[in-house]
Protein: Beta-glucosidase
Amino acid sequence: MQWPSITSKVKKDPALEAKIDELLAQLTLEEKVGQMIQPEIRHLTPQDIKDYHIGSVLNGGGSVPNGNRYSKAADWLAIADAYYQASMDTSDGKVAIPIMWGTDAVHGVGNIVGATLFPHNIALGAARNPELIKEIGRITATEIAVTGLDWDFSPTVAVARDDRWGRTYESYSEHPDLVREYAGMMVEGLQGEAHDSGFLSKYRVISTAKHFIADGGTHNGIDRGNCLDDEETLCRIHAAGYYSAIEAGVQSVMASFNSWHGEHMHGHRYLLTDVLKNQMGFDGLVVGDWNGHGFVAGATVLNCPQAINAGLDIFMVPDPDWKQLFNNTVEQARTGVIPMARVDDAVRRILRVKLRANLWEKGLPSTRPLAGKDELLGAREHRIVARQAVRESIVLLKNKNNILPLSAKANILVAGDGADNISKQTGGWSVNWQGTGNTMADFPGATTLWAGIQDAVASAGGKVTLSVDGSYSEKPDVAIVIFGEDPYAEMQGDIQHQLLKAGDTSDLDLLKKLKSQGIPVVALFVTGRPMWVNRELNASDAFAVIWQPGTEGAGIADVIFKNADDQINYPVKGRLAFSWPKSPDQGTLNIGDENYDPLFAYGFGLNYGDTDTLGDDLSEEGIVFESSSAILELFNRRPMGAYGIILEGKNNDRANLNGNIASVSTLTVTCVDRDVQEDARRAVWNGQGEGLVAISTLNRQVLSDYYESDSSLVFDIKVDAAPVDKAWVRIGCGPSCYSQVDITRELTSIAGAGWKTLTVDLKCYPDAGTDFGLKRTPQELFALILEPFTLVANNKLDVTFAQVRIEKGLAQGASVRLN
Ligand code: BGC
Ligand code: BGC
Structure:
């Protein structure tokens, strides 16, 4: 298939290309490979930069200088200077090539306390204001430049087509046209306009379109999952943002974590090289994602010529052992496993971007014009723009009797756990990666939704009370209830149904309580994606989606209250950039679908004064799960139903057990006989690190009913060599999302004793995800299962298992038993 050829506004400059030739000719192989390696600040010293000629560095979400989140611009600059100096040091006879530092400023500079945080992309999509996007890009570049960094990993140009995906809020729209309209604007905001002298000046940063390609198109909305769309759909839908980004002169593209028809993007030569570089004509650099190359078949994080050969130019390798990757890559280039022409092409692209970005002229980070100007972080003019974005992104779904806008002179009750909750209103990629657990101390200068409302009402002479649980002493004229999703980021944000807080009805109860007391209720819904809220809509008089608005909460009060003359203060303007579901299982609902049946169509949004015909009697029937059988068989001589067996080693290396043997770096699994031929599986861990074997499916399973009905996981097991260290049985819900029970003691006690049956009550599984700040309860996990049975060991172990099942009614509380 032929893809469109895109003409970038940034033209190839013969003088610049000649300069690249000149530099390339002077570089040793080691210096070239160094340009292709991007470690993380926690694992990179200035000496490393000299020794390995490192070309770029990143700080991951929540990763800050010296581990101090309250670092000032000067602290960032000190490190940026040290890195820059090391890269420019020619005392060892090496060529000076400035290092570049990349960061995730995805809705403002999320990693810096005090920065301006804009609403997330899904909200900006609702604003339908491309010029505003450009201005946000410009401000983001300014705030990045204060800390001396060079490069932003933004914009995300995913066209999210399954709202269960935990990164849906990073997507501007499900509609490719809107993503296309915005992507180029964001690039121009960050980098400056290609045709003028401000392009990639000292006031601008390099932009990245990510994640190439189809991150928003994975089967079941699983983060880092597999896209099964055909090529025409990639080209028409998922590539939309790249067209305008490349046109606008974007200098970098990030390869995605996902696969396309099972082939991982970091190793996808056809899409990275033939399509992106050759057919579309992208002449900038392709950077990898967070150790993402380690998912390429046959590769590991520290050994992956496949990715470079496929067209990756820079390994993003936050792994502390990145030096091994450097050494392996040098060796592979030397022996021809990676052709030298490919190395040269990668380095040529990197140098082209560095030259275009004027990194030599920009000089030492602390000497650049914006460097160290702390006052620009969260500057008033920047916050004004963010507040405008908040105002413009509000989408009004219901407004019975035109209750909105409210008079600020009334007696108003503000309730709900989102009212005065900065962490909730900023969402993911805010101060820390998942955005959880932050307080006002992390957002100096920010305004919560409550603070904005309080200010508006107080200055109008009204009365306003904050009461999270909705209790009051004097009956208010109206209640504003602010509630919705808690923060999350990649992986941790995936869900199986668009149900709010799986099973927890406290928000709905609050709405209903107030309504039953005869108080008009205005619901403000904080969310990263469309959710099924029919019941909440029925229980509210007005309902507005305010997304995750960021640090400038006052933008909401600007719109929901009338002005001093009792007129509309600001219009409500937002229009849905995503279709809104009528039932909780419409994650893949998108404009243009055959039989398109949304509750609110793409583009919907009431104006003030519109006649609202929604009513209070939307169907409240959510999802009726069929009652499940008493026994769920997972493995009976072979994996049952849609399940298969997968292995995972310590370096992201994975294999499917298709024939009768499969291996990864840390274990081998074979089919063996117990009673009949090949009715059991033997797993042998080699002691080289953690590894697992799992019964796995690509379709999330809702096993909630088993969890609720006192079920147990039951399996037969024979231990031939006891765990040398630890062993666990785990449930898995996607990358880095699992809960596990330690069974070291049980396995040790039956070593050499032949076949036994192990019973693990489901109630044994603890909360998951505490390492990431986001806690998921077992109730939540059992609604999201991809791997209902996983054996994990971190050292040697030799076991054989058979007859794996989940059985209702066996549990004895929360115990693990052998018989
Ligand atoms: C994310 C990227 C991000 C990178 C660096 C990855 O896990 O997928 O969007 O740019 O980390 O933090
Ligand atoms: C994220 C990083 C983050 C890290 C935490 C990655 O997937 O992209 O930004 O710091 O995980 O482990």
Notes: Residues 58, 60-61, 104, 153, 210, 257, 289-290, 490 surround beta-D-glucopyranose (ligand 1) (CB under 6 Å). The domain at 631-818 is CATH 2.60.120.430 (Jelly Rolls). The mean pLDDT is 96.
